[in-house]
């Protein structure tokens, strides 16, 4: 084993030259350099430094509560009861909140959310998840043994990839991911040493999936690796589209024909805003295609407490359901998750409440529905507003935000700005977003952090800021874009 | 890429033959086959099946609340306040609990524990951790920038190993771990493809570390891999020893001389029971050895909310502190943790309370101290009781349980039972523990799940059951051991 000369001088073991090179290849734009600079600017503002703005507006991450969205009262009541069961003796909470808390606590070791749960998740929570999936999918059966609670959806996705990825050289596992993608995927693939196989979403057709693109991407990949899995994010992140039923059918037929393991990231399943759009779960469509597909195609689908109307990112709750997984492999999956003991129990409790929310006739039902509807309506409004205002800007083209929490508009950048960016060693849209941040305090993530067709530029912007701030943000982006275009023309 | 014939028949992608072989190599005894059988037996008992016992007593895992330990009132009050801040308006909570909750909420995005935190953890929590470490270590400075909050200690340990492990063939990274070990280490090393380098603890000297053993283990390992790191668990899991200050000094000097990155798993730092034993943090000893060591030796130390007097495993809270880490590597670490967004925020809040507990003069201080002391005194009693009773059994030899939560007694097994186990393809102590479980309902983990010297046999038993149950458990173990010895003699 070689010692680098600088190790000897500094007498340390772990240097940039000796560390795991796969970790060095990891990139995660959503919390990358632009966000670090935004945090620095916030600190500068607090310290009294003069800027052309008084606050940083962060539209870089799907973090609803940080943007002022209020938690669902019922959820938080039950969580408080689970944390401090003495509160069950008080008269301040509705009976349905108390019942949910009692049921969860009864399922916990020693009646405490401080005990480890089963590694796959608390039994009754997995049963509730199974019932929820059956209701959602019009009765398609769901076996709680196929449900695994997770530490957010990210944890489930990485766990599935760990099972799939192996091999070296031409037999290295390839995993197909959409471009633009959510960078958890590229980061996990880099860390695991898998081949990232890109397929491009069709921006002209509202970020839909093209069968011909999937086919050519796969054919190309097969020349140098072993593609095993196909990942889909629906509703889309960062692109905000909602895939049509037809498209999902096509993808399933493609996966069956080409023998690919499907991974469906469906964490935005309640975030559908556009007229005529509807969420179709991959599982439901799979079963509607009949036993030729439903008995054979392997599918893992992922959900989370972090998005939809609840936006409870901090609790790191989630689940995955696996379908048609080989029994021996599933035993390996169960063993693998046991090493990390269990997902956080408060997150499991929250996941339970999401799939087992107050029902008609229960005391909390009306308030719950009011809060849920208000949040989703507001998001729908902001989705529309974002699309409309961005499309008034010459040089910005924005697809409808049909779902999820993001717009991913195409931005025309003047040649001179592209040259200047390249001279600085920056991606042109990173240069654009950095300038936007410095001049306006608005924090967006450049399209290059998600991937995009060569020669096109984008940014991802969440629709989460409160309406008044969102309007300011959009007006500032408009003004900035015009100024930037002029400046570099 | 080769298709296995059975893949074609079953038309599935992911089989035991095509999956990641590293995952197949993972083993985790603490939740292994014996625990699965215990859960099955519990189900059988519920269904009315007759057994020679009426309940399963689980002493397989360090899960205090599951064994009836009560949570610390103050911690749970603050967690309830954080979950449902409306409670701040009620008069039912002490002012110090409200103040802690307000401080934590103020540090959360949008004032909600449902927002993502910074990936490294909430700023003020990391500051509180740093103050705690400074107090604990008699003023040795701690920089909050070197503190990373984690999803339990396991998460921190795996993250550090990810940075360290790389290479193929003779340059594969080797990581030294104690035998017996906590099987998270072997599991993580298997998954990452590192070489597990065993060093044996000295059972005759109460599971202490021998310098000569470290030296010979390292010399041997250097013939076929690149040993980079040395892991220590102190107080010990599964062996319950507390390392002396001298021993820690020796280990640090050894790491410095041999240029090994130190990983100190110190999650049991408050669990020290034996007269004359004291917890010495690796960091404190490192700094007391002077700048030759404190400026050079790289150390990561790990703590958690799951053990000590709080036992809050379900919240998955923890932190790690890194010392003398190369700045570029630390930037990579910060990037790596950002991919998983953040540790669970309720677990971060709980970690904050552990390091910033009620102080003299605060309204909750007396109750807090009473609860803390009662729990630790009871554990000390049970540690003593376990050692004493086990040592009355002919054929069982138990070292003092100086700390942590486990005894790891040596058991003599009759030759005939060893033969019978081998005929069944089982480790002899697995055969023993399985028989114990079937006959008495007691669930222990065989020593083979942790590693032990060839030809010796052990089991790990937690000291956590309530005293009355612990006494029954120990009496049953005694009776069983005598019967088993007779039966196979």
TrEMBL record, chains A, B:
<feature type="domain" description="Aminotransferase class I/classII large">
    <location>
        <begin position="90"/>
        <end position="475"/>
    </location>
</feature>
<protein>
    <recommendedName>
        <fullName>alanine transaminase</fullName>
        <ecNumber>2.6.1.2</ecNumber>
    </recommendedName>
</protein>
<dbReference type="InterPro" id="IPR015424">
    <property type="entry name" value="PyrdxlP-dep_Trfase"/>
</dbReference>
<keyword id="KW-0663">Pyridoxal phosphate</keyword>
<dbReference type="GO" id="GO:0042853">
    <property type="term" value="P:L-alanine catabolic process"/>
</dbReference>
<dbReference type="InterPro" id="IPR045088">
    <property type="entry name" value="ALAT1/2-like"/>
</dbReference>
<dbReference type="GO" id="GO:0030170">
    <property type="term" value="F:pyridoxal phosphate binding"/>
</dbReference>
<dbReference type="Pfam" id="PF00155">
    <property type="entry name" value="Aminotran_1_2"/>
</dbReference>
<keyword id="KW-0808">Transferase</keyword>
<dbReference type="InterPro" id="IPR015421">
    <property type="entry name" value="PyrdxlP-dep_Trfase_major"/>
</dbReference>
<dbReference type="InterPro" id="IPR004839">
    <property type="entry name" value="Aminotransferase_I/II_large"/>
</dbReference>
<dbReference type="InterPro" id="IPR015422">
    <property type="entry name" value="PyrdxlP-dep_Trfase_small"/>
</dbReference>
<dbReference type="GO" id="GO:0004021">
    <property type="term" value="F:L-alanine:2-oxoglutarate aminotransferase activity"/>
</dbReference>
<comment type="pathway">
    <text>Amino-acid degradation; L-alanine degradation via transaminase pathway; pyruvate from L-alanine: step 1/1.</text>
</comment>
<comment type="subunit">
    <text>Homodimer.</text>
</comment>
<comment type="similarity">
    <text>Belongs to the class-I pyridoxal-phosphate-dependent aminotransferase family. Alanine aminotransferase subfamily.</text>
</comment>
<keyword id="KW-0032">Aminotransferase</keyword>
């Amino acid at each position: 084993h070689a010692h680098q000369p600088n190790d000897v001088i500094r007498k340390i073991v772990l240097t940039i030259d000796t560390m795991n090179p796969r970790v060095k290849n990891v990139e995660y734009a959503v919390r990358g350099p632009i966000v670090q600079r935004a945090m620095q600017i916030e600190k500068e503002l607090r310290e009294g430094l003069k800027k052309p703005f008084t606050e940083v507006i962060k539209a870089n991450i799907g973090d609803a509560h940080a943007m002022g969205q209020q938690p669902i009262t019922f959820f938080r009541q039950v969580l408080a009861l689970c944390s401090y069961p003495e509160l069950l003796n008080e008269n301040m909470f509705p009976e349905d909140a108390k019942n949910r808390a009692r049921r969860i606590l009864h399922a916990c070791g020693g009646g405490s959310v401080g005990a480890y749960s089963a590694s796959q998740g608390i039994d009754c929570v997995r049963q509730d998840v199974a019932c929820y999936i059956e209701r959602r999918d019009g009765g398609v059966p769901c076996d709680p043994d196929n449900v695994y609670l997770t530490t957010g959806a990210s944890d489930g996705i990485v766990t599935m990839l760990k099972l799939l990825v192996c091999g070296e050289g031409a037999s290295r596992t390839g995993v197909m991911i959409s471009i633009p993608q959510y960078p958890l995927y590229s980061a996990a693939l880099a860390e695991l040493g898998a081949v990232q196989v890109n397929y491009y979403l069709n921006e002209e057709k509202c970020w839909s999936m093209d069968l011909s693109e999937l086919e050519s991407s796969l054919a190309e990949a097969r020349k140098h690796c072993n593609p095993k899995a196909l990942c889909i994010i629906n509703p889309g992140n960062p692109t905000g589209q909602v895939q049509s039923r037809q498209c999902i059918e096509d993808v399933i037929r493609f996966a069956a024909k080409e023998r690919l393991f499907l991974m469906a990231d469906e964490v935005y399943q309640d975030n559908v805003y556009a007229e005529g759009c509807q969420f179709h779960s991959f599982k439901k469509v799979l079963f509607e295609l009949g036993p030729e597909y439903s008995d054979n195609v392997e599918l893992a689908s992922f959900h989370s407490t972090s998005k939809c109307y609840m936006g409870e990112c901090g609790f790191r709750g989630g689940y995955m359901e696996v379908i048609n997984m080989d029994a021996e492999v599933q035993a390996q999956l169960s063993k693998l998750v046991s090493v990390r003991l269990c997902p956080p129990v408060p997150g499991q409790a929250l996941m339970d409440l999401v799939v087992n929310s107050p029902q008609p006739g229960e005391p909390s039902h009306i308030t719950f529905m009011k809060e849920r509807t208000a949040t989703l309506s507001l998001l729908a409004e902001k989705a529309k507003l974002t699309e409309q205002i961005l499309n008034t800007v010459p040089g910005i083209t924005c697809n409808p935000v049909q779902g999820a929490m993001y717009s991913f508009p195409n931005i025309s950048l003047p040649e001179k700005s592209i040259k200047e960016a390249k001279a600085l060693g920056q991606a042109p849209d990173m240069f654009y977003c950095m300038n936007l941040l410095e001049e306006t305090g608005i924090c967006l993530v450049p399209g290059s952090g998600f991937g995009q067709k060569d020669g096109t530029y984008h940014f991802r912007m969440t629709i989460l800021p409160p309406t008044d701030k969102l309007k300011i943000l959009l007006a500032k982006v408009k003004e900035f874009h015009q100024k930037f275009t002029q400046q570099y023309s």
